[in-house]
Structures are given as C-alpha cells and as structure tokens.
Amino acid sequence: MPETVPGTLPTSTDHERRGVIAGLLAYGWWGFFPLYFKAIRAVPLGEVVAHRYVWSLVVLAAILALRGDLRATPRLLRDGRLAATLLLSAFLLSFNWLFFIYAVGANLVLQASLGYFMNPLVNVLLGCLFLKERLSARQWVSIALAGVGVSVLTVLTGSLPWISLILAFSFGSYGLVRKVASVGPLRGHAIETAMLAPFALAYLLWLGWHGRAAFPGPSMQVNLLLPVIGLASVMPLLCFVYAARRLRYSTIGFLQYITPTMQFLLAVAVFGETFGVARLTGFAFIWAGLALYSWETWSQARARRTESLRAPSAPSENA
User: Fold this and answer.
1) Is residue 60 packed enough to be buried (19+ CB in 10 Å), middle (13-18) or exposed (0-12)?
2) Any idea what the Cα angle at residue 262 is, between residues 143 and 107, rounded to 5°?
3) How far apart are CA 17 and CA 11, in angstroms?
4) If you write DSSP's letter for every residue of 191-207 in order, what string do you get?
5) Which pLDDT does position 100 carry in this prediction?
6) How far apart are CA 256 and CA 50, in angstroms?
7) N or C, which terminus of the chain has less Cβ within 10 Å?
8) pLDDT score at 11
9) What Cα–Cα distance (Å) separates residue 119 from each residue in 8, 31, 48, 122, 172?
10) In 3D, which of 128, 162, 164, 111 has the Cα closest to residue 271?
C-alpha cells in the first residue's frame, strides 16, 4: 500500500475513520456521564445545572475566540426569530439536563437509558407530526413496538416510566427545534448557553451570598470535579459535530446506541439497579422496535447509494 504523501488532503476513507473515532469518543463520553454525576451527587440539582451553564460558556467562548468567531456570534441575535428559537431550545436542553441529573442521583439510570433508547423513535414520530415527514410501514411498526414496551412497563411495574418519556421527548424536541434553526451547532450552542448563563451565575452568587453554595466547599472531590463540568459537556458535543460532518446519517444512527447501552450496563453492573422480568419484557419490545428502525434506516441508505450509482452521469459539454 503506498504511503500518504505529506501535505496531501486526506482521503474519504481517512475522513470516515476519523469520523468514527470522533463518534465513538462522543457517545462513549456521554455513556460515562452517570459516573461523573454520581461523583458530585452531594451537590444540589439546581446548582449542578447552573455550574454547567457557567463553565460551558467559558469553554465555548474560548473555542469561539480561537476560531475567530467570538465577535461575530452575538450578531446572530439580531434575527429575532432565530433568537426566540434558540431560547426555546435552551430551555428544552436545560429541562433534559435537569431530569437526567435527577435520574442519576435518584438511582434511575435504567430509566434514563431507556429514554435514550427511545429517542430515535421519538425523533421519527416528531418529524412526522411537525415536519410532515412520511414514515414507512416498518417505521410505524417500530414506533408501535416502543408504545407497547412503555405500556408493558407501566402495567408490570405499576408505574409509568416518566423519566424515560421526559428524557426522550425533551431531547427529541430539542433536536427538532435545532433542526429548524438556521445556525451551526457550535455557534447555536454558544448562544443557547449565553442566554441562560447570566441567570445561572446570578443563582450561584445568591447561593454563595447566603452560604449555601457547595462550591467552593469542604469536599475536595466536588472542588475538583465541578469546574470541569463545562469541558465535560462541550467536548463530546464537538466530537459529535466533527463526526456528523464526516459520516453517513445511517452510521451516526447506529453509533448513537452506544450511549444508552453504556448507561444500561452501568445501571445494572455498577449501580446495582434491579432489572427483573417486568423491565426485561418492556425493554425487549423497545429493543425490537429499535432493531426494526435500524434495519429500515440501513435499507433506505443502501437503496439511495445503489440508486445514485445507477444514475447516469451528466453529459459532457464537449459531447
């Protein structure tokens, strides 16, 4: 195999390989998030979310400054419709963060993982309802299987898996809102964060003024881990954006199952959450729906590639 000449552009294979690595880093990072939030579970929920906004803004501002985009990004807010859209997405993301961190602290990581297993199917449903996207018969069946799984869990466990539903629909709604926002992922997330960071900072200052802040505090573990929450939040997002630009949508679709799978394994093997027959039955229906959805996504992507290869090339001007 010939060596790559220094200074040449990377091949499509190199792009795809780097994209897969970035995707694995992003989804693996998110998969380990429960371990991080378990380590700082002594910090009140609202304070954790506030720190996440403040430190994330610091990291995002530094990245935008390095890219030379720091001054240009705020100008996007001159578009009132875009500003309103990003404010809505910021609240949806905060809602998702709040309940995910709550789930970890309340030993409900299994429910959290179920929510993110359901997320692709919720995305399909929201696309049908709000973007008028047409669903295939297999996609409708996959959504129906997920509905059966939730119903089975509700009946057999005696309670609705509300954490799962909140996480799935809040993140799905966030993705839907961001899809219609005419702004890139990095700038958009920076604006979202900047919109709520002042309120988060004010809350943290209020806690400190009344002597109720956990940071800085007597716990060295909290003092070390809490300030890195911004980096821990932003870096997987950047890896995801890098991967999304280099990989097919179907590949990203398969990689996204890494996060809930890791959370599921952590819940059962590390945190000792109970996974009995009732939960297994409900999860089985949802996993079946995901398998059918993944098969349909792969089949559609393969059909599009085949069709593009068979399409006749445009005639040359010299012909």
Assistant:
1) buried
2) 90
3) 10
4) HHHHHHHHHHHHHHHHH
5) 94
6) 27
7) N
8) 54
9) 40, 15, 24, 5, 6
10) 111
Contact 146/293 with Cβ under 8 angstroms? no
Residue 310: count of CB within 10 angstroms of its CB: 7
Close Cβ partners of 39 (under 8 Å, ≥ 6 residues apart) = 221, 225
Of the candidates 256, 273, 277, which has an alpha carbon nearest to the alpha carbon of residue 264? Answer: 273
pLDDT in tens, 148-157: 988 988 888 7
CA distance 319 to 100: 61
Burial of 212 from C-beta contacts in 10 A (0-12 / 13-18 / 19+) = exposed
Residue 13, token pair as written in the block: 């294979």
CB 172 within 8 A of CB 123: yes
Q: Which two tokens stand for residue 216?
A: 């800085």
The amino acid at 130 = F
- In whole angstroms, give the CA distance from residue 11 to residue 275: 45
Report pLDDT for 3. Answer: 37
Spatial CB neighbours of 77, under 8 Å, sequence gap ≥ 6: 83, 191
pTM: predicted TM-score of the whole model, two decimal places: 0.83
Q: What is the pLDDT of residues 54-108, one digit of tens each?
A: 999 999 999 999 988 888 888 888 888 999 999 999 999 999 999 999 999 999 9
Q: Is the peptide bond before 218 cis (omega within 30 degrees of 0)?
A: no
263: its two tokens? 């959370």
pLDDT band at 298 (very low <50, low <70, confident <90, very high): confident
Alpha helices by DSSP H, the chain = 12-31, 33-39, 45-67, 80-105, 109-130, 137-157, 162-180, 185-209, 220-225, 229-246, 249-255, 258-265, 277-310
R_g of the chain computed on alpha carbons: 22
